C-alpha cells in the first residue's frame, strides 16, 4: 500500500523534494536580501497555485484572487497596527476574512463560465479595490497602512523564510491531494464538459463554489504571510495587477501543473527585482517573456519539460 501511495503521488513528492532542496539551501549561501527574495517567491507561488487550481483543473480563469489575497493582507496589518492585537490572531483573522470574501465571490461566480466568469471576478475584484481606496478611515486610502513588524521570534529573515517554506510546501501537498481526489476529478470533468457532468447528476455550481472558496483560503494564507513579510498594505495590493501577476506566474510555469507556479513566481519576481535596477521598462521585458512563452512553450516551462521527457521516453 505504501509503494502504491508513493507511485501515485510520485510527481508531487519529487516536485516538493526539488523545491525543498533548491530553496532550503538559500539561507546557507545567500544574503538577507536574497533570502527576502526567496521568501517572496514562496508566497507568490502559493497565490499562483490557488489560481492554477481554478484555471488548470476547473477551466475557470479568475481575476479576483489578487483581491482575496489583498483582503487578508489588509486584515492582518489593520489588526496589528490599528487594533494592536496579536500577529497570530491577525493571521487567523486575515485567512478567515479572505475565505469569506472568496465564498461571496464564489456564490456569485459559480453559475457562470468562460468570459462571463472572467469579467465577474474582475468586477468583484474592482469593488474590493474601490473599498480599499475610499474607506480611508479603515484602509488608510491611498496612503495605506503600515504594520508594526513581525514578532521578535520572526524578525530573523532566515527563521521567517523557513516558516514560509514549511507552510507553502505543506499546502502544496494539500493542493496536490485535492486535485487528485474525486473532487478534483469532478472539477476536470466540469472543465471538459459541464453539460455532460450536469446530465450525470453532478452539482456543477456547488463544486465551483467549493473550489473557489477553497482556493480563496490558500490565497488568504499567502496574503497573511505577505502582510508579515512586507509590513505594509495599500490599494495596490488588491488591484487588478495583483491578480494578473498571479495568473501570469501560473501560465509561465504551466497551467494545470501546480508546481510550475514556483518557476513562474521565481521568473517574474527575479525579473522585477533585478531588471528594474537597470530600466524602468521592466514590464515590457515581462511582456516579451510572456509572448515568447506563449509562442514556444504554450504549456508553460514545466509543461515543456514534461513534453521533452515524454518524447525522450518514446524515442
Automatic annotation (TrEMBL):
It is found in: Cell membrane. Its main location: membrane. It comes from the Bacteria. Keywords: Cell membrane, Membrane, Transmembrane, Transmembrane helix. Pfam families: BPD_transp_2. It is a multi-pass membrane protein. The chain crosses the membrane at residues 12-29, 35-55, 62-82, 88-108, 115-135, 159-179, 200-227, 247-271, 283-305. One of its GO terms (cellular component) is plasma membrane. CDD domains: TM_PBP1_LivM_like. One of its GO terms (molecular function) is branched-chain amino acid transmembrane transporter activity. This is Branched-chain amino acid transport system permease protein. It comes from Aquamicrobium aerolatum DSM 21857.
Amino acid at each position: 500500500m505504501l509503494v502504491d501511495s508513493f507511485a501515485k503521488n510520485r510527481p508531487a513528492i519529487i516536485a516538493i523534494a526539488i523545491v525543498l532542496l533548491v530553496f532550503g539551501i538559500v539561507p546557507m549561501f545567500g544574503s538577507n536580501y536574497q533570502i527576502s527574495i526567496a521568501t517572496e517567491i514562496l508566497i507568490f507561488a502559493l497565490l499562483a497555485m490557488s489560481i492554477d487550481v481554478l484555471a488548470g483543473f476547473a477551466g475557470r480563469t479568475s481575476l479576483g484572487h489578487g483581491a482575496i489575497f489583498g483582503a487578508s493582507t489588509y486584515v492582518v496589518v489593520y489588526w496589528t497596527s490599528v487594533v494592536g492585537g496579536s500577529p497570530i490572531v491577525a493571521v487567523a483573522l486575515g485567512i478567515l476574512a479572505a475565505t469569506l470574501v472568496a465564498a461571496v465571490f464564489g456564490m456569485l461566480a459559480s453559475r457562470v463560465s468562460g468570459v462571463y466568469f472572467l469579467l465577474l471576478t474582475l468586477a468583484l475584484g474592482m469593488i474590493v479595490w474601490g473599498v480599499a481606496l475610499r474607506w480611508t478611515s479603515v484602509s488608510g486610502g491611498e496612503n495605506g497602512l503600515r504594520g508594526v513588524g513581525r514578532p521578535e521570534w520572526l524578525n530573523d529573515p532566515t527563521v521567517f523564510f523557513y516558516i514560509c517554506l514549511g507552510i507553502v510546501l505543506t499546502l502544496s501537498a494539500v493542493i496536490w491531494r485535492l486535485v487528485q481526489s474525486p473532487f478534483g476529478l469532478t472539477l476536470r470533468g466540469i472543465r471538459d464538459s459541464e453539460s455532460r457532468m450536469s446530465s450525470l447528476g453532478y452539482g456543477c455550481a456547488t463544486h465551483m463554489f467549493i473550489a473557489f472558496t477553497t482556493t480563496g483560503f490558500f490565497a488568504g494564507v499567502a496574503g497573511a504571510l505577505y502582510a508579515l513579510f512586507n509590513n505594509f498594505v495599500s490599494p495596490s495590493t488588491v488591484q487588478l495587477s495583483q491578480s494578473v501577476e498571479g495568473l501570469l506566474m501560473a501560465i509561465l510555469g504551466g497551467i494545470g501543473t501546480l508546481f510550475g507556479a514556483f518557476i513562474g513566481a521565481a521568473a517574474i519576481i527575479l525579473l522585477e527585482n533585478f531588471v528594474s535596477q537597470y530600466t524602468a521598462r521592466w514590464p515590457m521585458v515581462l511582456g516579451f517573456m510572456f509572448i515568447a512563452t506563449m509562442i514556444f512553450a504554450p504549456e508553460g516551462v514545466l509543461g515543456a519539460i514534461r513534453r521533452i521527457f515524454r518524447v525522450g521516453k518514446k524515442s
